[in-house]
């Protein structure tokens, strides 16, 4: 196992190192636990320096709180005798939590509450009972009491705030920064005070005077003090007050003016939970039952610090440094992953690149009696490098895009595969081929011609195709994807040369299984992208041409996440088209009929999904560019049962949420206060709104309805109102306002909404060019210091406003992200690079995580985790003048971070089905 072992005392946490130790074996009295998350505590900092009152004998493993999975029960117990069984999710406290494995006796373990992550559970064992035991059993908190909680944004502080509120008390919270006071509010504090202001006791008294009546009520009833502020607190307590001494985080033992204790009939009691649990054993169960009751009632949630991620044991020193430096709030928790899994997660793309060519490509008409030969594909292109085993030769080799190496075939390969006479004599390296191909690419007159050239190359030499793009990714990205791919889709039937993907049409539903059989067996496909072509890239119904969007998405899955192209399947569901230009085009290749809708359409989609799941049970299904009235409906129908994803809804929501998280950090806006206006309530707009609402609800404890009330959505009729009735889609309905709340005299257009709401955030997904006018942006900028403006419609010609205009109208104060690439804007003589809110930074990593974990479903929690992972890579976190999202050139590393977040969350939620993830480094190397 891996662990942080202390062999000698250190000066500080940054001196700690991770080491490898023997994995412990189950003992007669202890469970063997695989640790998923470990909590940090101030006493850890003292302990590693030899300054704590309880020091274990050297050497010892640091950390005391953890959450994880039972690997083995005590050897002295049968399965029926053990309280926990193998696979159970537990949390507890035992010395040695900064490790991948730990032995723990049964009395130190408790079950992880339903719906809780390992991260939140790892911070529960000390904070919750300390606060519950103190407030309920020692201070006897009652409904109507006023409770003063010091250091309220700390781990025990946030627990105390929630417990006091859960018991019907009013809470005054103290904290030293605005961010921490905001956190205290989000966890339920009624009033917040800055304790750095020496007059804070008077502020407490004023609050009580304003809100409390009766003799002896000119102060608080209970003081909860983990800091060392009892003496000052005596100035603002009520008659018969109870003061709880929880700790001395300030670092010194204070002196108390006992005259105030006498005059106000005050009781001062202490609580050290470890000692209390030792001497009051009969009370421990009652305390935990009370805590779990509050959890079940939704009155107590996890307090894990979310502003910075600490992943892997290597991050423990930084986590302790942040804790000791008072940089954090809540409970600082480290996500612990064992070494083999960490190596595996960080090398997922490499792991995937080792796929050999599947035998299906060497069977059938390509099979011949010659000896089986291998082609070495020497490429650093993602998902391509490796060895392909083939049974073909001659023209069969060079006409296969997977096998063809062109002029790079060696002399030996030319002899073995009978290639002499089929190739020019000069043998070249892949790098030389890339150089020639790039010159050919540059010679094409426009972006569409370049796109066509690349499609032709892909059909001839897959390795060269991916290597060329990888070498010039930033320059070529807009050609192989948006916005140029939209032009290619519009011209699909006229530019058609060679089919790629699976074409299913609604008139031939009985052949779906036969058609899918052409693409392999059950283990052959990992990733399916399917489109019905009704709403493509802002250009509407494109019928059968939408096969190209499925192809393009899978190209990015390979480029950005390393998923092998031979294990992908692009699909189009041809239901006809309502595009009159296509119906009247004699060269159109799709069904020449109006688009089929209703029950027949639903049966077609159902048959495809059912058949695809039957034939490729491990495959992840990615829905792409379905129409407004089908996208959300189909996603909601299938996502509870299968691993599926809609990029227009969830991908757009995820990448936009990541950009917003970065913008909130820069502008110092809390989720509890943010006001968001979304202009354009189609699949993308409502997807963004839902992701933002889900995150507000998760992070603030508000209901989904309360969170949705912070978002104002507009569409063609203007602001969405409940009176629109059946005109609202299922995705729009949660964001429709009551008509009483929004009378007609307020106005329903965008400018009127901005004037009324004064939003922090304005998002455009309308495909209405220039919709964000100067008046609208200037009105927004009057009320917020840093307007967050995201014109996301694409292609470029459909954007709601240009970054240059937004920058000018806000005097350089706006935080921006766009849906298509734009040149930098100038701010104070310096170029400001505008972030591109491109789904390609998000969906490949999500797909990779889903494929590798074989998750049963893709949950909301996984998507929020993906957004957080992407936001954590924002350059703006280090420099507010840099873009909100990372550069596309770094997309491989980004995808690894996102995939890791998906996998970790899938494991935590119990949805991961993959059993072959290596658990030991030796197995990984094999």
Compact summary:
With 926 residues, this protein is of the alpha/beta class. The chain is built from 36 helices and 31 strands. The C terminus is likely disordered.
Model description:
The protein has 926 residues and is of the alpha/beta class. The chain folds into 6 domains: 2-124 and 306-338, Quinone Oxidoreductase, Chain A, domain 1, CATH 3.90.180; 131-273, NAD(P)-binding Rossmann-like Domain (Rossmann fold, 3-Layer(aba) Sandwich); 359-471, Up-down Bundle (Hemocyanin, N-terminal domain), CATH 1.20.1370.30; 484-626, 3-Layer(aba) Sandwich (Rossmann fold), CATH 3.40.50.10380; 649-838, Rossmann fold (3-Layer(aba) Sandwich), CATH 3.40.50; 841-909, no CATH class. The chain is 38% helix and 15% strand. The strands form 7 sheets. The chain has a 7-stranded mixed β-sheet with strand order 25-24-23-26-27-28-31, sandwiched between helices. Strands 3, 5, 6, 7, 8 and 15 form a 6-stranded antiparallel β-sheet that branches. A 6-stranded parallel β-sheet has the order 11-10-9-12-13-14, with helices on both faces. α23 (547-561) links the parallel β19 (527-531) and β20 (568-574). It is globular and about 100 Å long. The model is unreliable at 338-382 and 918-926 (pLDDT under 50). One of its GO terms (cellular component) is mitochondrion. Pfam families: ADH_N, ADH_zinc_N, malic, Malic_M.
């Amino acid at each position: 196992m891996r662990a942080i072992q202390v062999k000698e005392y250190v000066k500080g946490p940054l001196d700690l190192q991770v080491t490898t130790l023997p994995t412990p074996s189950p003992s007669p009295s202890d469970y063997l636990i695989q640790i998923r998350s470990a909590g940090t505590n101030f006493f850890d900092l003292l302990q590693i320096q030899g300054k704590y009152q309880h020091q274990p004998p050297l050497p010892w493993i640091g950390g005391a709180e953890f959450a994880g999975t039972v690997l083995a029960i005590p050897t002295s117990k049968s399965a029926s005798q053990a309280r926990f069984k193998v696979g159970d999710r537990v949390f507890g406290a035992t010395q040695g939590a900064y490790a991948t494995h730990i032995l723990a006796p049964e009395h130190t373990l408790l079950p992880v509450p339903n719906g809780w992550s390992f991260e939140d559970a790892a911070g529960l064992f000390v904070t919750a009972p300390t606060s519950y035991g103190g407030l309920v059993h020692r201070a006897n908190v009652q409904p109507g009491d006023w409770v003063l909680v010091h250091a309220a944004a700390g781990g025990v502080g946030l627990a105390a705030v929630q417990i006091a509120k859960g018991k019907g008390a009013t809470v005054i919270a103290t904290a030293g920064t605005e961010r921490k006071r905001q956190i205290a509010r989000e966890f339920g504090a009624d009033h917040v005070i800055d304790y750095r202001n020496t007059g804070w006791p008077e502020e407490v008294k004023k609050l009580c005077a304003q809100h409390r009546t009766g003799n002896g009520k000119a102060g608080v009833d209970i003081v909860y003090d983990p800091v060392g502020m009892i003496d000052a607190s005596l100035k603002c307590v009520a008659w018969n007050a109870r003061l709880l001494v929880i700790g001395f985080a300030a670092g010194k033992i204070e002196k108390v003016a006992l005259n105030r204790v006498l005059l106000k009939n005050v009781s001062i009691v202490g609580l050290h939970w470890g000692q209390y649990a030792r001497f009051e054993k009969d009370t421990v169960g009652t305390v935990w039952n009370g805590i779990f009751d509050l959890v079940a009632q939704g009155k107590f949630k996890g307090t894990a610090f979310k502003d910075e991620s600490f992943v892997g044991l290597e991050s423990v020193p930084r986590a302790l440094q942040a804790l000791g430096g008072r940089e954090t709030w809540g409970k600082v928790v480290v996500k612990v992953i064992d070494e083999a899994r960490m190596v595996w997660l960080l090398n997922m793309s490499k792991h995937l690149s080792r796929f050999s060519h599947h035998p299906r490509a060497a069977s059938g008409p390509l099979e011949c009696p010659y000896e089986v030969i291998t082609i070495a594909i020497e490429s650093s292109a993602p998902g391509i490098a490796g060895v392909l085993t083939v049974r073909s030769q001659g023209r069969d080799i060079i006409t296969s895009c997977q096998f063809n190496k062109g002029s790079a075939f060696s002399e030996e390969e030319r002899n073995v595969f009978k290639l002499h006479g089929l190739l020019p004599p000069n043998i070249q390296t892949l790098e030389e081929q890339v150089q020639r191909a790039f010159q050919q690419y540059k010679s094409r007159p426009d972006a569409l011609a370049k796109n066509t050239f690349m499609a032709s190359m892909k059909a001839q030499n897959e390795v060269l195709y991916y290597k060329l793009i990888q070498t010039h990714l930033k320059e070529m990205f807009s050609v192989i994807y948006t916005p140029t791919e939209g032009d290619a889709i519009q011209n699909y039937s006229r530019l058609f040369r060679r089919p790629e993907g699976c074409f299913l049409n609604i008139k031939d539903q009985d052949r779906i299984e036969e058609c899918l059989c052409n693409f392999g067996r059950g283990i052959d496909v990992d990733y399916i992208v399917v489109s019905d072509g009704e709403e493509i890239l802002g250009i509407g119904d494109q019928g059968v041409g939408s096969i190209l969007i499925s192809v393009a998405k899978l190209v990015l899955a390979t480029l950005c996440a390393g998923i092998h192209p031979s294990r992908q399947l692009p699909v189009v569901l041809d239901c006809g088209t309502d595009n009159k230009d296509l119906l009247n085009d004699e060269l159109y290749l799709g069904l020449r009929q109006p688009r089929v809708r209703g029950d027949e359409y639903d049966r077609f989609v159902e048959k495809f999904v059912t058949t695809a799941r039957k034939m490729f049970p491990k495959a992840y299904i990615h829905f792409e560019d379905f129409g407004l009235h089908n996208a959300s409906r189909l996603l909601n129908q299938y996502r509870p049962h299968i691993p599926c994803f809609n990029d227009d809804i969830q991908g757009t929501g995820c990448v936009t949420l990541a950009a917003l998280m970065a913008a909130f950090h820069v502008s110092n806006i809390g989720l509890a206060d943010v006001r968001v206006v979304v202009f354009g309530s189609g699949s993308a707009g409502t997807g963004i709104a839902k992701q933002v609402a889900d995150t507000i609800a998760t992070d603030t404890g508000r209901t989904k309805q309360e969170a949705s009330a912070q978002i104002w959505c507009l569409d063609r009729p203007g602001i969405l109102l409940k009176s629109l009735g059946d005109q609202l889609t299922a995705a729009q309905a949660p964001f429709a306002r009551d008509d009483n709340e929004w009378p007609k005299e307020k106005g329903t257009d965008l400018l009127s909404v901005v004037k009324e709401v004064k939003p922090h955030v304005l998002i455009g997904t309308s495909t209405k060019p220039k919709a964000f006018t100067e008046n609208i942006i200037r009105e927004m900028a009057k009320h917020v210091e840093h307007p967050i403006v995201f014109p996301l419609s694409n292609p470029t010609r459909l954007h709601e406003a240009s970054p240059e205009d937004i920058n000018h109208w806000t005097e350089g104060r706006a935080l921006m992200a766009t849906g298509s690439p734009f040149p930098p804007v100038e701010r104070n003589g310096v170029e400001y690079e505008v972030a591109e809110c491109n789904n390609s930074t998000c969906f490949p990593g999500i797909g990779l995580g889903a494929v590798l974990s074989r998750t049963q479903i893709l949950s909301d929690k996984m998507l929020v985790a993906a957004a957080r992972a992407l936001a954590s890579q924002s350059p703006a976190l280090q420099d507010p003048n840099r873009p909100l999202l990372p550069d596309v050139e770094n997309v491989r590393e980004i995808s690894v971070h996102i995939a890791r977040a998906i996998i970790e969350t899938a494991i935590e939620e119990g949805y991961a089905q993959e059993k072959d993830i290596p658990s030991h480094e030796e197995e990984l190397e094999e």
